[in-house]
Amino acid sequence: MMLCKLSMLVGAMHMLALATPFLAEEGTQPWTRQDEDIVVDAPTTPLGVVEPVNVDPLTDIHNTRLIGDLVNGATTPVGKSVLNILLGNAKAESEPNGYRAPGPLNSKRCRADTCCVWSHITNAMTSAFTGSRKQCNNLARAAIRLGFHDAGTWSSELAAQGQDFDGADGSIVLSGSEIGRKENRGLERIATQMKQWQRTFNVSMADLIQFGAIHAVVTCPLGPRIRFFAGRKDSRVPAVEGLLPSVTAPADELIKQFRAKTIEPHELAALLGAHSTSTQKFVDPTLAGRPQDSTPGIWDVKYYNETIQERPRRIFRLQSDVALAAHPSMKDEWMDFIDPVDGQDHWNSDYATAYTRLSLLGVNNINQMTECSHVLPAEIRRRPRFA
Asked: Span of the secretion signal (predicted)?
């Protein structure tokens, strides 16, 4: 059951339980709010429709737009797992289960287990992404950004025109030219590292990039342990240009751009929190290295509070972030993330769900993927003493 705040006629705020969505017959997906007896019937969302369907009419937080081959149905256990995550019926976070690799890398026993190689990769990434103070470091920050920039080049508008490709396909590294684009400056080192890891472990670059992005998040103290699905297909064709968001774009334009990626404003609010670990270099070179919150090595919610401060000390604020934080479709969610009691868990949960969606954009074989979440390291649930 999902909890959300509902504004009552008298202006009071209280928590209400929402009914979980379900698929219905004849191409409709009724959504029911039990306590208000509200039912919304909407047709199954085609890829080309940018406006969302099955949205909670009171809170605009319910996104049921499907992606990839799930548009034609979830036909396997993994497909159903991803579908349930997207619909809000299952958690996008995972718990360790004591997995141990059945054998050394390239051994017969390891090759027989799809996830074994990823357990060896996780050891390499844990070492590479952990800084001297046991916080996530610059390479981890770059890995998170690389995941966004590879997957974020997909658009439902282009998909509706027959161009249902780009997205999480590894092309940002494999194409040779995409990494040189202006918006990808600063990602050269992590791209080189990904090439080295691919040579060592012989896995899909598309998977490696997304595994790196979620691994970097859980390497950061307080970061969520997001579920990982392997099986993406690589592409060496450069992604279409102009599909990544600009830091100077108006809020409405950014929201429209993300909706074309099936990402709604409340999900965008969660994804922006990745700036909690960001340091900027190129937006304002005179302030290169300035972080976007005061604890860039920790996955915490200080970013949300410090972004809306008028003059945060030694913090670099993107004007697009400031504008989005104040946007009517995002400001309530933004303030919820600041909550000192529930904000961290709320954000982690929302981020994990939103990033699962983002990481599978342009992936049209979700039903054939394999879940390897169990190889990831455990969450670091405590803030470092010195932070």
From this structure: 1-19
Helices 188-201 & 116-129 angle (0-180, nearest 10): 150
- For residue 387, is it within any domain? no
CA distance 171 to 235: 5
What letter represents residue 348's amino acid? N
Q: Is 149 a catalytic residue?
A: yes
Is 48 part of any domain? Answer: no
In angstroms, the CA 16 to CA 14 distance is: 7
Q: Measure the CA–CA gap between 58 and 33, rounded to whole angstroms.
A: 10
- Across 295-382, where does the E strand assignment appear? 370-371
Distance CA 383, CA 387 (A): 7
Tell whether residue 300 is among the known ligand binding residues.
yes
Q: Is 169 assigned to a binding site?
A: yes
To the nearest whole percent, how much of the chain has pLDDT over 90?
Answer: 75
**What's phi and psi for 64, nearest 5 deg?**
-120, 20
| pLDDT tens-digit readout, 157-188 | 999 998 888 999 999 999 999 999 999 999 99
150 is in an annotated binding site: yes
For residue 207, the domain's CATH number is 1.10.520.10
342 is in an annotated binding site: no
Q: Alpha-carbon distance 149 to 20, whole Å? A: 32
CA end-to-end distance (rounded Å), the chain: 34
Question: What domain range is 107 assigned to?
Answer: 68-82+94-375
pLDDT digits (tens, 9 = 90+) for 354-377: 999 999 999 999 999 999 999 999
At 97 the pLDDT is 85
The total domain count for the chain is: 1
φ and ψ of 31, to 5 deg: -120, 125
Q: Is the pLDDT of residue 12 over 60?
A: no
- pTM for the whole thing? 0.84
131 within domain boundaries: yes
* Cβ neighbours of 253 (radius 10 Å): 14
Q: Is residue 45 part of a domain?
A: no
